[in-house]
Amino acid sequence: MSSPIENENGTVLCGSDDGTLYAINSESGEKEWTFVTGGRIRSSPAISHDGKVFISSFDGHLYAVQEETGKSIWSKMLGGSVYGSPFVGMLGSIQSSAGVAEEGLVFIGSADGAIRAIDTENGDIRWEFMTEKPVLSSPSISSDGTVLVGSDDGNLYAIDSQNGSEKWRFQSSGRIRSSPVVSMEDGSILLCCQDGSIYALSSLGEELWAINIGQTIRTSPAVEEGGRIYLGADDGCLYAIA
């Protein structure tokens, strides 16, 4: 149930319910290495610019392993099972399509309701922010370095990536288990809730519009350049929304 990612060398990295992170050659399909955790892996791995792969597990740990060999670098015990994927802050500026973050931090939520910033070098916790219920959503990062993450308490939290202080929160109508999508143009945020609600928010967390499709939503939406929104729901349908 983990989504695979491919690194610059053509290696596909993917986790499995057997608790193993697999590195597979994208050309031949041959296994290059494996790394075994103590629980199911349903998150997607993240890769830092200095060759570390980060993966979370139902055993409650966040792991850092070597990208080339799969050998362990460090592991950090968090509070409860970890469903969400880690987000890595690299190079101190633009970080893929997800946004920006402070150099050398990996952000992760866990079932104890905490969102943590962890040092990529040694696994030390830089800061911890507590919500009222489990955090199964994966974090996103806005262009100004704000960490955005949803919780089962129904709130979307905006947190300062440097010190873990709360900037604002938005109370939705249901549990949030998908990742928010941030526009790089104006910082607006698209948020989906399990109760079928979809929200568009300003960069300051103000509601712009909301609709409900009447179906459970577990996935994160994709946004086309022209503004059309695509998402899947539990009724087996793909929705396109203007």
Commentary on this structure:
The structure is a single chain. Helix content is about 0%, strand content about 45%. With about 240 residues, the protein is mainly β. The protein folds into 2 domains: about 1-170, Methylamine Dehydrogenase, Chain H; about 175-240, Beta Barrel (Lipocalin). A hairpin with a 5-residue loop joins strand 13 and strand 14. The strands form 7 sheets. A 4-stranded antiparallel beta sheet has the order 1-2-3-4, with no helix packed on it. A 4-stranded antiparallel beta sheet has the order 5-6-7-8, with no helix packed on it.
Query: Considering DSSP H and I runs of 4 or more, what fraction of the residues is helical?
Result: under 10%
Mean pLDDT, all residues: 91
Q: By CATH's scheme, which homologous superfamily of the largest domain applies?
A: YVTN repeat-like/Quinoprotein amine dehydrogenase
How can the largest sheet be summarized? 4 strands, antiparallel
Give the beta-strand count: 25
Number of alpha- plus pi-helical segments: 0
Walk me through the topology:
Elements: E1 5-6, E2 11-15, E3 20-25, E4 31-36, E5 46-47, E6 52-56, E7 61-66, E8 72-77, E9 87-89, E10 94-95, E11 99-100, E12 105-109, E13 114-119, E14 125-130, E15 140-141, E16 146-150, E17 155-160, E18 166-171, E19 181-182, E20 189-192, E21 197-201, E22 207-212, E23 222-223, E24 229-232, E25 238-241
Antiparallel strand pairs: 1-2, 2-3, 3-4, 5-6, 6-7, 7-8, 9-12, 10-11, 12-13, 13-14, 15-16, 16-17, 17-18, 19-20, 20-21, 21-22, 23-24, 24-25
